[in-house]
Structure to design on (195 residues):
């Protein structure tokens, strides 16, 4: 095997090392993502929303105390990564008075609202976050009465995006230099054609 081919294979190994994630996949509401590490916020403060954790399920419950507003359950992303979860939503309130979804940096992303024709909504959601983004789930109540919205989450997963590690970058530089040296050696050994 010539040295340039060996360097090429070594380069593939180095690139594989570069793709190693900084944080392993987090499955469920454990470790960094344990419920006690999240923040519950009612806006305005009198909305009266809450959450219930019954491992492995989390439910964010909107307000039902005659105060309209949002209930947020959020956490700061430790790394760039992908968030995925299954969700379900229901409310005993009448049409269009409660809704729910996920939130990134204070911006709500709607997933469901009450509907007398469809008493339960569910789905799978996947989105990306950057390190330092605040993300989570929300329930909004427009009237604050006649039944709370319930947004359930399970199969929560956070998968960190791969980032290069300093030692991997050094290894890649070493492999590239070795490949260039092998190519030069091979080039100098080949006889030159005369014209």
């Amino acid at each position: 095997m010539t040295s340039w081919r060996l360097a090429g294979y070594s380069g593939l190994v180095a690139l594989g090392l570069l793709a190693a994630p900084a944080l392993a996949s987090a499955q469920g509401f454990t470790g960094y993502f344990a419920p006690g590490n999240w923040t519950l916020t009612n806006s305005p403060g009198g909305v009266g929303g809450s959450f219930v954790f019954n491992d492995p399920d989390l439910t964010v419950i909107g307000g039902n105390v005659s105060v309209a507003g949002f209930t947020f359950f959020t956490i700061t992303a430790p790394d760039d990564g992908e968030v995925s979860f299954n969700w379900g939503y229901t409310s005993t309130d009448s049409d269009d008075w409660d809704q729910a979804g996920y939130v990134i940096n204070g911006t709500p992303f709607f997933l469901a609202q009450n509907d007398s024709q469809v008493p339960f909504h569910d789905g799978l959601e996947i989105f990306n976050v950057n390190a330092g983004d605040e993300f989570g789930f929300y329930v909004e109540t427009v009237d604050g009465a006649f039944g709370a919205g319930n947004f359930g989450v399970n199969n929560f997963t956070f998968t960190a995006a791969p980032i290069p590690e300093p030692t991997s970058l050094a290894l890649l530089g070493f492999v590239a230099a070795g490949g260039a040296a092998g190519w030069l050696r091979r080039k100098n050994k080949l006889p030159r054609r005369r014209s």
Summary: The first helix runs from residue 3 to 18. The chain has a mean pLDDT of 80.
